[in-house]
Write a structure and sequence with these properties.
CATH topology of the largest domain: Rossmann fold
Structural class: alpha/beta
Number of domains: 2
Helix content: 25-40%
Strand content: 15-25%
Radius of gyration: 20 Å
Order of helices and strands: EHEEEHEHEHEHEHEEEEEHEHEEHH
Number of helices: 10
Distance between the termini: 23 Å
CATH class of the largest domain: Alpha Beta
Largest sheet: 7 strands, mixed
Length: 328
């Protein structure tokens, strides 16, 4: 990889993550300065010459105390705009968690399409490419953008963890709703290859109205097996808890779960403390700052996705294939 041409920034709120990506690439983060003004406005600028360079900016767009997802989004947009004004040849936004991706279709009259509006904002400031991890709806994400929208998957991280620990278990992969069946099937296929034996599949009925989730029917054989519930995101944890209880009620010997993004909003810590669920795996696209420290490692395992993003950046910069990186 040509280190002279590649420029990697991480905005301040994502600096620890960016440092891990830079370390995996064997480079240092590029320098920038950020300033907050008394009235809440802000500015950020590169301290490097980016003219003609291939630039990547890491910023995970989750809300946290003191900085909302909206704050992070506009800081990223303004910084990308400044880089393009400084004649960067190409700017790629690297967002391990992409805000507003869940609102990708109209479920009620006059609903907003948040994912499309965010895409238009990125395009308006001159972003050349997006990279994110496990969006809620891949087709909606790809269709929202008119620039290349790359999509990484945490599947390989989860497969490696489970394959090392479930060598002797009969395993079934469970989607908590019908909409996640394709994601669960891809994970099941990869896990079956890693274990070198068949892995079962199942999915649950799920209905949501006014924020209330219902439905408990399970399609698939779970009795006597280790169930792995796979989802893209855990927010309040109620969907996951409902699925875990249903699996146990239908004879699952053990119940695990894996989700790419751990929001852990509201009473998620109490919901996930239920002993029915043996362990939940999440990627580190969102730090688990809302959970009690005692849960980490014991009930919730956080897997490092920085090497995955580093390899994606390496390949994008050198013209390599992300399809091969994802096992396609």
């Amino acid at each position: 990889m040509s280190r002279d041409a590649l420029c990697l920034f991480a905005l301040d709120a994502s600096r620890p993550y960016g440092e891990r990506v830079a370390a995996a690439l064997g480079i240092a983060l590029s320098r920038h300065e950020a300033r907050d003004f008394e009235d809440g406005e802000h500015k950020a600028r590169s301290l490097e010459n980016v003219r003609g360079r291939d630039v990547y900016v890491i910023h995970s767009l989750y809300g946290e105390p003191g900085m909302s997802a909206n704050d992070k989004l506009i800081r990223l947009l303004f910084f990308i705009g400044a880089l393009k004004d400084a004649s960067a040849a190409q700017v790629t936004a690297v967002c391990p968690y992409l805000a507003y991706s869940r609102k990708d279709r109209r479920t009620k009259p006059r609903d907003p399409l948040g994912s499309r509006y965010v895409a238009q904002l990125f395009e308006a400031v001159g972003t050349d490419r997006m990279v994110t991890l496990d969006v809620h709806n891949l087709a909606a994400y790809q269709n929202a953008f008119r620039i290349p929208a790359e999509h990484l998957e945490a599947r390989g991280l989860f497969v490696a963890w489970f394959a090392a620990r479930l060598q002797d278990d009969a395993v079934v992969v469970v989607s908590p709703d019908a909409g996640g069946v394709k994601r669960a099937d891809a994970f099941r296929d990869a896990l079956a290859r890693a274990l070198d034996r068949p892995v079962g599949s199942a999915f649950m009925e799920k209905r949501r109205s006014e924020g209330v989730v219902s439905g408990e029917a399970v399609v698939g054989d779970i009795d006597g097996r280790t169930a792995i519930i796979l989802d893209d995101l855990v927010s309040s944890g109620t969907t996951l808890a409902r699925a875990a209880a249903a699996c146990k009620a239908r004879g699952a010997s053990r119940v695990f779960a894996a989700a790419s993004h751990g929001v852990f909003a509201g009473a998620a810590a109490e919901v996930l403390a239920d002993p029915v669920l043996e362990k939940l795996l999440v990627a580190d696209s969102i730090p688990p700052f809302r959970l009690p420290p005692a849960m980490l490692g014991r009930r919730v395992e956080v897997l490092d996705s920085a090497p995955l993003f580093a390899e994606a950046i390496r390949r994008l910069h050198s013209g390599g294939s992300l399809v091969e990186l994802m096992g396609g």
